Amino acid sequence: MASATLMTYFLLSITNTCNKSCEYCVVKPWLNNPEYPDKATAEDFISFLEKEMQPDDIVELTGGEPTLFPNLLLLLEWLKEHGARVIMRTNGFKLGAWRKDFPNMIVVLARHDSDDEYMTERRVHLLEYDVVSEKIPEGAEQTEPNMPVHIKSELYPLDSHGIKRALFITNDGNIKFMPCMDVSMGNIIDLNYNLNQWDCISMSRCPYMLGAWNLITKLEQTNWNSVPTN
What we know:
Layout: E1 8-13, H1 42-52, E2 58-62, H2 72-81, E3 85-90, E4 105-110, H3 116-123, E5 131-133, E6 165-169, E7 174-176, E8 186-187, E9 192-193, H4 207-222
Parallel strand pairs: 1-2, 1-6, 2-3, 3-4, 4-5
Antiparallel strand pairs: 6-7, 7-8, 8-9
């Protein structure tokens, strides 16, 4: 993978809206909850990334269900034009032919409680290097909200990463280091923030970063070189 002086991983939880309500979902308390409405728009995310993102940085889109995010394609187009490596974790609800316009993105399609017919319809839109997650890997069940477990496997063989900085941004624009850190650095909506560099002793073993690094490495090995960047 291409290296950078300050490789940043942006984990964007762009929406709390979801078409499912899986019992095991780590963000279930926030999903479709009127007390936690979406506030940050595609334009808000773009304005922030325009200031903080460099080409080859990693941007992961999650939620909720990211295909339900208004102006998702606007955000994806901007990310492609600016050389971002993108991960989108989705149940595929509104996945369509547009997916093929973004070869700089790897899609992780999660079955959750979907039936075979639903999955077959969504698989048509995937590219050869996309990933289908049929179930939660054994041993990776959630023990508490926002705390995943990194399970080394054929898909996730790497146990080290090159990420130097990480930022987690919620659907209301709040900026944190990662979901496990409950300290705000500010908000992207008014661009009023101070990006402190957290000294996390577990950063090298962070399951979010290790998972993202493994996926982006897979993307780079298959097609990243064919994607034009600015």
